């Protein structure tokens, strides 16, 4: 007579593993704005955007959680079960690159994330006047954020700046553009323009650089020696004429 073998779940199997098996068996999954996998959402500053998370293939009520980065988003009671919506309003530049994630409460491995791609042109304008002494160093700084990242060009007196080795130095990040001039000369006088260009728009900033004459520098040792000599001379003069001084008094 054939023996029957039954498959039993070993005692002590973690509840999380059982939940995972249940999810696999039923095909339970989430979607955000009809995306069942992680995705990037392109937008612009200003208008609000709505994210809707929906449970699929579940025969029971499932609680949902929302996260902004690592922080949990507070949800109202009627906005947690099987479907949950959040609204980002208004969208601003600081939301660029932020990840919003919808998770299943009982099994947080079931999740869908969306990364915000907030696109905006460079914000750059105005002018500045800088005075620098001849033979000193000076740095011109443009602070500008944009998405997509912009390209920067420096001009001097409305002409493309010709960079000179060991005299000009450029530094650029996604938000900072710097032009350093080493040991400025009289020929460096002029207006420098930082032009920031992106597919969404351009920005400019002018720097009026004025190179002042180099101030004469007196050696400290010579100054001290001169003071000592003058002081001693005055003292000797007083001693030599002390008799006349006493008669006056």
TrEMBL record:
Membrane topology designation: Single-pass type I membrane protein
Keywords: Disulfide bond, Glycoprotein, Immunoglobulin domain, Membrane, Transmembrane, Transmembrane helix
PROSITE patterns: IG_LIKE, PROKAR_LIPOPROTEIN
Cellular compartment(s): Membrane
Source organism, top-level taxon: Eukaryota
A cellular-component GO term for this protein: cell-cell junction
Entry's transmembrane regions: 7-28, 222-240
An example Gene Ontology biological process: cell-cell adhesion
A GO molecular function held by the record: cell adhesion molecule binding
Main localization (coarse): membrane
Domain Ig-like, first and last residues per copy: 14-113, 122-212
Coiled coil: none
Stated name of the protein: TMIG1 protein
Organism field: Dicrurus megarhynchus
Chain's gene name: Tmigd1
